[in-house]
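Quick review question:
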């Protein structure tokens, strides 16, 4: 009797222990699932976080900095990264490796890119020109991935090319992690570096640069408007790009031509679309009058080669008088608030030096002239025949006295 009672007690104890372990295991699993969900949804910056402000205004013709605040402090570029994505795409067009009507394959990786996006589907294609317009207007992240994969094979490899190109342009404090500008802790830049890029893309690709002035375009029956609210609203603004993430704040690079003067301005860390735009308007009006009407600074070009990444320049040419017709500018309705990478969260910027040879700032050397003679059309105009320097001077005279409607 006693043995039977003891055996029964031991069995009950074992059953109780197993039940306890089962309950504990279920609890641990639930806690682990909750922790994973919390980690996935965790907001890096709290609700009181405000992205730090930075700005710079550069006189393109003299190269002089007219205004700067925190111009060398690290910031997240957000969709300003797409300027470099387009720079590398324009290179492919200039070299004849791609054409404006070349169809680009849409991968699953591109199709699942986070908004803002065109809504491209895997196994579809998109023409190069439509992809360009999608980036400069809607800031479409799926189109950015398509471009990156077409050129680099993968977005990661393409980002390495972006960073290398940044070094070759003298952008010493910029590192790219992706083609879209979607949040990544190591993806950082500065206002000064973005001003360098804003000038360089015009000097190197003056014809293709004109895509940045596209007010809207039609894609599969839908009208897609440009997020840049200053186009057609501020006299002389001809581009170039907006950007937004939670960590970057509202970013904008602008190019303005008035009365033979040309400035490139960058605002990073705006608190809203309207606040950023208002600040940019103020910077333009305060500093455009200080800019030079005569080119004294060299046209910007990059070096070739990974190890000798020093910014090179070519001597400025004597201006040749040419007619200065006004560039037609269309009024742009205020675009809806940017979202995606123009709408996502990212960590606080930290400088992560790229494993590339640093670029010595302001170390002008004699440059090799551009040699590409590949032709393409931009909005019905032929591009690619003259050298980069000659194209830049032609467009400079063409657009220099432009007066877009207020």
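Suggested answer, residue by residue:
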């Amino acid at each position: 009797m006693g043995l039977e009672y003891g055996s029964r007690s031991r069995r009950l104890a074992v059953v109780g222990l197993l039940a306890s372990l089962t309950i504990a295991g279920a609890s641990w699993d639930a806690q682990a699932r909750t922790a994973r969900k919390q980690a996935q949804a965790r907001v890096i910056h709290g609700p009181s976080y405000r992205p730090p402000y930075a700005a710079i205004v550069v006189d393109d013709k003299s190269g002089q900095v007219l205004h700067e605040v925190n111009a060398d402090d690290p910031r997240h570029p957000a969709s300003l990264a797409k300027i470099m994505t387009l720079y590398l795409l324009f290179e492919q067009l200039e070299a004849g490796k791609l054409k404006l009507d070349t169809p680009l394959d849409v991968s699953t990786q591109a199709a699942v890119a986070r908004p803002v996006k065109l809504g491209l589907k895997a196994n579809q294609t998109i023409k190069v020109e439509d992809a360009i317009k999608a980036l400069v207007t809607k800031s479409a992240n799926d189109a950015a991935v398509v471009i990156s994969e077409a050129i680099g094979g993968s977005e990661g490899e393409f980002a390495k090319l972006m960073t290398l190109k940044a070094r070759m342009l003298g952008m010493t404090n910029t590192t790219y992690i992706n083609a879209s500008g979607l949040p990544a802790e190591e993806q950082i830049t500065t206002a000064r570096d973005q001003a360098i890029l804003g000038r360089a893309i015009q000097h190197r690709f003056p014809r293709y640069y004109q895509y940045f002035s596209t007010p809207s375009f039609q894609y599969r029956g839908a009208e897609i408007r440009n997020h840049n609210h200053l186009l057609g609203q501020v006299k002389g603004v001809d581009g170039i790009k907006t950007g937004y993430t939670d960590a970057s704040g509202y970013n904008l690079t602008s190019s303005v031509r008035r009365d033979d003067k040309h400035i490139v301005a960058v605002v990073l860390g705006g608190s809203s679309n309207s606040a950023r735009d208002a600040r940019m308007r103020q910077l333009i009006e305060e500093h455009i009058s200080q800019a030079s009407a005569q080119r004294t600074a060299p046209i910007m070009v990059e070096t070739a080669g990974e190890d000798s990444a020093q910014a090179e320049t070519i001597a400025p040419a004597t201006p040749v008088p040419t007619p200065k017709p006004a560039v037609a500018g269309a009024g742009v309705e205020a675009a809806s608030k940017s979202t995606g990478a123009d709408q996502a969260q990212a960590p606080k910027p930290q400088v992560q030096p790229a494993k590339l040879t640093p670029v010595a700032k302001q170390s002008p050397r004699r440059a090799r002239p551009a040699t590409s003679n590949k032709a393409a059309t931009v909005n019905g105009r032929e591009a690619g025949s003259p050298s980069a320097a000659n194209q830049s001077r032609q467009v400079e005279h063409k657009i220099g006295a432009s007066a877009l409607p207020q």
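Why it works: The chain has a mean pLDDT of 77. The first strand starts at residue 54 and ends at 59.
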